[in-house]
Amino acid sequence: MRVFVNFTEHRGPYGGANSFLRTLCRALRARGVHVSHDLREDVDVALLNALTDDIDVAFVREIARRGIPIVHRKVGYRASGSPELRAVRDGVVEGDRRQLEFGEYVTHTIFQSRYSRDVFVAAGFEGPATVIHNGVDEAVFRTTERSWLRGERVRRYWDGREPLRVVVSTWSTDPNKGFSEYERISAAFGGRSDVQLALVGRTPSGAALDAFTLVPARTAVPLARYLRRQHVLLQLARHETCSNALIEGINCGLPVVYLDSGSNAELAGGYGVEYEGDLEDALGAIRKRYSSLVERCAANPYRASLVVEEYLAVLRTVVG
User: Fold this and answer.
1) C-alpha angle 162-168-169 in degrees, rounded to nearest 5
2) Tens-digit pLDDT profile for residues 121-143
């Protein structure tokens, strides 16, 4: 099977979509699929992502005119993209509306979460669709450490005595990533010795995060290595379609304190506790259930080896 994907890979830490599509393309190739980013090639199916690389309805129409079936992976733009794409008109986000315009040319739609599907249905979506959560490269985001001297062994978890290490992971400085709440938490937890806060990624200029250790954004391998040295992931982003940062943390064995917004609860409900405005309470619940949550994290389904099979099933059906 030959698949066109509208994806230009960006090196370095560049957000969830870049990370997921890179992982998906590699997983497809590993299963014998010819993946092309050049539409001049002869392909069997087009897997289009959102509005990536500025695709528009004319671009999609031309693919359909050539008789190439289209699978479209929709992304909600309420919390991503330019101000133009986030603008709301008649209750519909502009970036979402532009994707809905592809409808008559799309054979099948993939949503990254039930939350995202429901948002698009409320905006007028109709048609065949499948919900497939994102997955990460489990060879990178894993719960084992490897070294030349000691081989592979399970990462160290919280022992109940040492300080509880809580980490935020974000590549973006967007306000929807939860920085106002992280500032409030920083003020409340300053000087604590039993809880150590860290943020790996990027922060807005002037953000008051004195209680956090700030770590620059990292590429996948060093990011995963850093996450495995932490104990809990703090995820207070809003309106996320399907947060890669969230599932990267889960795959590294981190129970989650999550804000029930967007798809967060859908993804992390079985692997953490809800944040209801008091981090102290949430961490207390995590401490009580830490061992069982760690065991659940180890069996999560957000892995490229599983997710790629779901994508292949859709692509084969459409081509077939």
Assistant:
1) 125
2) 999 999 999 999 999 999 999 99
